[in-house]
Every structure is written in C-alpha cells, then in structure tokens.
C-alpha cells in the first residue's frame, strides 16, 4: 500500500510538473511584453513540450500573411516559402539540431531556389539589446526567414534570443522580430563565421566533410532530404553542381 501511495504521489508530481510546463508554454506564446530574462526562463521550460511548441509556431506562421501583410488568401509564392520553413523548423527541433544557422540557411536557400522562390543567403552579425552574435539567415525580398535562431547552440543554458522568424515575424511573440540583422560591430565576424563567409557552398560542404560531420547533416544530403519533405525529388550531386558556386552575402549596416 505504501508503495502504491508513493507511486501515486510521484505521478501526481509529474502531472503537476506537466501542468507547470503547459502554463509556461501558454505564457510563452501569449502576446504580452515580457523581459528577455522572463522569456528565457519560460522558453527553457517550454523545451520539454516541443511538439506543442512546433504546432503553435507553425500555426502562427500560417497567419503571418494575413495578420501582418494584409493578405486575405496567401499566394502560392508565400505558401511555398511556408512549406520549406516548416520542414526546416521541424527538422531542427525533432533532431535537436542546435547552432545550425550556417547549414540550415544554406538548405533553405537551396530548396527555395528549387521551387523558384528568389532569395538571398546572408551572413552577418545580429543584435538583441546589448547581445551580438554571428549568424546566417535567408532573405526573400526584404523579409527574413530564420528557423535556426529558435534553437541556439547554448539553449540548455537559456541563451534565448527569440523564436523562429518567418517573413520577419517572431513566431513566439507574434510580433515583428526584435532582432537587428546585419549590424556591424568593432570586432566583426569571428574566425568561424569568417571561414564560412569566405567559402562558396561547395567549399562549405567540403569543410563539413573535413570536420567529420555526420553524412545526414551534410548540406547537400540535408537539402535532398528536406526537399523530399516538401514534395521534391532531387539528387544531392545535382544540387552541388547547381549551387556549389553560391556565396553568402555579408550584411552590415
């Protein structure tokens, strides 16, 4: 009996923890002004509810054209961007693909190009308040597409800078992103980002191989696999031939 009571108590505590996480997630996705520190704490708890987090973000991404751009029915052009963005976001969070901005931005750029969405593959410094970090992202016109920013390399220590960004909207706050993309600091890019910036995509892929990256996350293989998720059948070698000479554009104000 004592054993049963103990197990019941443990189940109750687990349920209470789930309730707290669900409440944290609800607060995290509310349209209210929270400090970065508050958002970081809530975000850390919400990591345990990844499926719910993904579902909420993807739902908000679908609403961006209507809520922020005055579009009644999104065009096929915007819907195509949404499909690619959602596939990238799902991969990042399902595979705990942290600090993946250089790789994932290239993959998003490649797949967008394959479906005739013109975009620019960018690299530069990004600023939030007094925090600066090196980053890669994609621009469609003047709109930012940035799935990787939602799961930074140091996410376990609550290094939260914002939710995923679709067409310049932070899907966590449901407002225009607070991040300033392409700022310029005194020090500029660090050695890793400079290394990425100075290489075209073929050289970037070769650098991944030299660094011993798993085959599944090599840029050409990942682009092939995510393209399949949006209904495209492509060959990794063909992608390298088509996009290997592409360089990132360094953004700086």
UniProtKB/TrEMBL annotation:
A Pfam family of this chain: Transglut_core3
Domain of life, per lineage: Bacteria
Domain Microcin J25-processing protein McjB C-terminal: 96-146
Protein name: Microcin J25-processing protein McjB C-terminal domain-containing protein
Source organism: Acidithiobacillus ferrooxidans
